[in-house]
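[job 4417] fold queue: 2 targets
>>> target A
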Amino acid sequence: MNMQTPSGYSQGSAPAQVAFDRRELSVILSVYGRMVAAGEWRDYGISCLRDMAVFSVFRRTAEHPLYRIEKRPRLRSKQGQYAVVGMDGQILKRGHDLKTVLRVLERKLIRVVD
């Protein structure tokens, strides 16, 4: 008898690549939509790699990403699997809860009104 594993899974039942689930994407796209409405962001890209998933945010398509929202399941028990990384590679916020980590981006929406 020949047993085949489902596509996307290896013999150890771990996914072949890391991806954002529907709940995570809903939270990320909620923040993204508010920033687009404010005129701060214009484009995004999603990368699903073997050890991490990345949601990159761009001001213009041809530029380097302004921010990267990363999911690294290996860091789940240590520093937290979610991180927001700035353009220069500096980690702005890291943690276990995605909504809490994304608050660092929402501060950009708060402006002084004259």
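>>> target B
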Amino acid sequence: MTSIVVTGGTGTLGRPVVGRLRTAGHEVRVLSRSTPPYAVDLREGGIALDRALEGASTVVHCATSARGGDEQAARSLITAARRAGVEHLVYMSIVGVDRVPYPYYRTKLAVERQIEDSGIGWTVLRATQFHDLLYRLFQGMSASPVMPLPARVKDQPVEVTEVAARLAELAQGAPAGRADDMGGPEVRTFESLARAYLAAAGRRRAVVKIPLRGAAYEAFRAGGHLAPDHAVGTGTFEDYLTKRLAVTGARR
């Protein structure tokens, strides 16, 4: 039985990754900032992180924060992983981090480079945006009677459990370097996705498309965050909405 550490193991992606690995028979240690017995702040590292990594052969790094700190957390994790003799470091990244000059994407790319230069066997999987991200985005945008959307932008959302299955598969194999990108089954306009959300949530809103400025917006508009040649996901946004609203028991 292999010992595998999953950082961010209580998050949207981490939970199904942990479930997949445990079902496959591995001992999985779940790292998060507040969940015992491995409550660890990766930015600080220290004895708690060393204890969590002791004897582990593989680390699946799912922990991330759009509020910052990812590069510091990666440095701490890599240093501790070297001390512990970890053989395989698996990182979850985003399609387009090398093409879209968005601050969070730049951070993800910097972490990729840290992992590549770590001296540890590594695998990086890039995926398009999860359905959950769009759901929360549209939920916030539809709070007012007028729903503003960035003009001429498309997206390719993917089902998180499918990404988790692929990440768990990669974690159980040998270091693979850059794995093939993973995208959702459909490249769709932001407007069509927003209208699907409104219909499923039972909300009537005026949709207004707003042209934006800046290099990041231009890169998104050009499709730098899409992977049409790797549309391997099967779950659609409508599939996700049906499941999400059935679970919540409410039309939101």
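[job 4417] complete. Note on B: The chain has one domain: 3-248.
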